[in-house]
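pls read this stuff:
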Amino acid sequence: MVRAELSGDEAPELVAQRTTLELSSGKYSVRFDGSIVDHGTFEISADSSIKSLRLSGISGPNAGRVIRGIYQRVRDRLRICYGLDGIQPSDFATSTGQNRYLATYRRMGDS
């Protein structure tokens, strides 16, 4: 993770540096300091002008939850805006009072 913000507040740099997101074969894992802290499945849709994603948590703090989001990939960067309230965001922004999480990830390895 390169940077993140929750409801308008930027996440500490240390959190961003120690957090990774793995997406593979319809499954996601979030690691913090190498340990899996959240795990589940995901589906993506690129049918409309805005690309959307749906996470279904299996274990961790999002177990049993469905989180809708939008994403954008440019070269080695992936930006995701998660609607933590179950509502799909319409833009890549957060502000006070919104239950949104905006994260930017950099691809590791063979990017």
Q: What stands out?
A: The longest helix spans residues 13-18.
